[in-house]
Design goal:
Elements lengths: L1 H16 L3 H24 L8 H17 L3 H14 L9 H11 L3 H13 L6 H18 L2 H14 L3 H14 L2 H18 L3 H4 L14 H24 L8 H12 L4 H17 L3 H9 L9 H14 L3 H14 L4 H13 L3 H14 L4 H14 L2 H14 L4 H14 L2 H14 L4 H13 L3 H14 L4 H13 L3 H14 L4 H13 L3 H14 L4 H13 L5
Helix pairs in contact: 1-2, 1-3, 2-3, 3-4, 4-5, 5-6, 6-7, 7-8, 8-9, 9-10, 9-12, 10-12, 12-14, 13-14, 14-15, 15-16, 16-17, 16-18, 17-18, 18-19, 19-20, 20-21, 21-22, 22-23, 23-24, 24-25, 25-26, 26-27, 27-28, 28-29
Length: about 575
């Protein structure tokens, strides 16, 4: 029985590692049931020493983790609390308070989380100071979420003075940023750079790592791990730099970027280059494209990994300004730097498209998709080219793929619906337009198109419904007013027709037919004097209106009114 429990526990852990969370939870529950059976067996046979307390702890702990990863937080909380009651003698049982605190933190109950963390912190022995600092860091994060920045700073400063780490250093920087303390922001940023430099891998040690025979490059697990750490620390630095750079100098926001670059440049040239691109983007946001272009052009003279990014941004600026030859040149630079850059291929394809080379553009879009299957820009543009060529079936296939990657995108849904309409699949087109209408509920144009398609399907009820909904959102939509008023006249609802024709006259006062139809409705209702007044108004506006003269003549002959 004990062996069965171990097998189930291992199986649950392996399934969780493969992200099969539901199956992992089922195995965890089964392991708990088997462990309970084993416990009852030991008690009934008076051999309690056979029951392994550590195994029971592991089984319950695994169940709680499975509940947590399946976002069943209440069950996970109950399991952790049960462990505190029943497994108090197991090693590390006190750390359940940390897990409970983490659950509260995930549910944004930060005060409850702090309470649990403090209970856990009080139980940490002096010999486990590192664990104490980790719990203190959690308390600091919760205080940061609550906006209690000074209390959080006190905790983070204590940790940084005794057991500094990059995450705590970054959180400390965020606290000072929230308080607007520029001096301490700079100090924390410099401290963060210094800390990261001390944590950087020793190149002499890395040289001892084995190299692959083909390339001579380090490719062992330790080197890969060090590369991951390096990437993560550079991302931390970049995020910190982006956060503080714009607000370090009130007189000139760009000076903050220059200061950050000075600190980064000696050891982190790539991050400094990225911050230069960020500076250019900030100038673009402030509509100073000339300065942005000047900064980005400086990368043409640099041997930098960011050269592609700079060329891509320059392409964007030139393309937006309609300078397609310059845009094409920068797209070529990006491709020369990195031929396998899907975004650069899309940019070059766009240049070919505007120059009329649709085949060349299509080829580059397909190449971009082959390099990056989820390159949505290339997929969408390829669909537009197919529409332009009249290849409706191919366009639909492309836009359907786009719709899978970017669900409920209005542009893609519209193109699918429009292509179905052009192909004559009116019923399916209506379904797509209805889905589009649900995604963009206040777009009167979509509702008007649905009314038009319902007319093709001879669905009078839906035509009235969609025209009415269109007018609710756009009271001056001429096509919907015209369609609805024709239906009202056809069904001899002249009182409502009069209101519609009066609205149409206000919208198009020079259009004589609305006034004629208004007079007609008054006549049908027996309001001859009002009809005569409308005819007089038409005559004053347009004395040569033949229709008006004819109607007046007919009425005179019939003796319905005198002219």
């Amino acid at each position: 029985m004990k062996k069965t429990v171990n097998i189930l526990l291992d199986s649950s852990c392996h399934l969780r590692e493969k992200e099969k969370l539901a199956k992992s939870l089922d195995k965890a529950k089964e392991a708990v049931r088997e462990d309970k059976e084993f416990s009852k067996f030991c008690q009934s046979n008076e051999v309690p020493e056979l029951h392994d307390i550590c195994l029971s702890f592991a089984v319950l702990f695994n169940l709680a983790i499975c509940f947590e990863q399946n976002e069943q937080y209440d069950q996970a909380m109950s399991t952790y609390k049960l462990m505190l009651k029943t497994q108090n003698s197991a090693p590390n049982a006190r750390n359940m308070h940390v897990n409970i605190g983490n659950l509260y933190y995930r549910q944004e109950q930060y005060k409850a989380a702090i309470k649990e963390y403090r209970i856990a912190l009080d139980q940490v022995p002096e010999t486990q100071r590192k664990m104490g600092f980790l719990i203190s860091s959690n308390i600091g994060k919760a205080l940061l979420k609550l906006g209690q920045y000074r209390e959080a700073i006190a905790i983070f400063e204590t940790i940084m003075s005794s057991s500094p780490n990059n995450e705590t250093g970054f959180n400390l920087l965020v606290c000072y940023f929230a308080l607007g303390d520029k001096h301490n922001m700079k100090r924390s940023f410099c401290s963060l750079i210094g800390r990261i430099l001390r944590d950087s891998p020793d190149e002499a040690l890395l040289d001892l790592a084995p190299k692959t025979e083909e390339t001579g490059l380090h490719n062992d697990p330790l080197t890969q791990y060090e590369a991951q750490i390096q990437k993560k620390t550079e991302e931390t630095l970049l995020t910190a730099a982006r956060l503080i750079a714009p607000c370090l100098d009130e007189s000139d926001w760009s000076l903050g970027y220059l200061w950050v670059n000075e600190q980064l440049r000696p050891k982190y040239d790539d991050v400094a280059n990225q911050m230069e691109i960020e500076l250019a983007l900030s100038y673009i946001e402030r509509h100073d494209c000339h300065t942005a272009i000047k900064i980005l052009k400086s990368f043409e003279r640099k041997e930098s990994t960011k050269r592609t990014a700079a060329a891509t941004n320059l392409y964007f600026l030139q393309f937006q300004e309609g300078k397609y030859d310059e845009a094409s040149r920068y797209a070529d630079i990006a491709l020369v730097t990195n031929r396998y850059n899907s975004k650069a291929l899309v940019n070059k394809g766009n240049c070919l498209f505007v120059s009329g080379d649709h085949e060349g553009a299509s080829s580059l879009y397909r190449e971009a998709i082959s390099l990056q299957a989820n390159c949505v820009e290339a997929i969408y543009n390829l669909g537009m080219i197919s529409l332009d060529k009249g290849q409706l079936n191919e366009a639909r296939e492309v836009f359907n793929k786009f719709n899978v990657l970017v669900p409920n995108d209005p542009c893609a849904m519209y193109n699918i619906a429009d292509s179905l309409d052009e192909s004559g699949d009116t019923a399916i087109a209506i379904e797509w337009y209805e889905m589009l209408g649900a995604s963009v509920p206040n777009d009167s144009g979509i509702l008007a198109r649905l009314a038009e398609l319902s007319t093709k399907e001879n669905n009078e009820g839906q035509v009235i419904h969609y025209n009415t909904e269109t007018l609710r959102r756009d009271p001056v939509h001429i096509e919907s007013l015209n369609s609805l008023v024709n239906w009202l006249v056809k069904n001899e609802m002249f009182e409502k027709s009069i209101l519609m024709f009066e609205r149409l006259r206000l919208i198009q006062p020079k259009e004589g037919k609305w006034a004629l139809m208004l007079a007609h409705c008054h006549r049908r209702l027996g309001n001859k004097s009002q009809a005569l007044e409308v005819y007089k108004q038409i005559y004053h506006i347009d004395a040569g209106n033949v229709d008006c003269k004819y109607c007046c003549f007919v009425l005179h002959v019939r003796g319905e009114m005198l002219i």
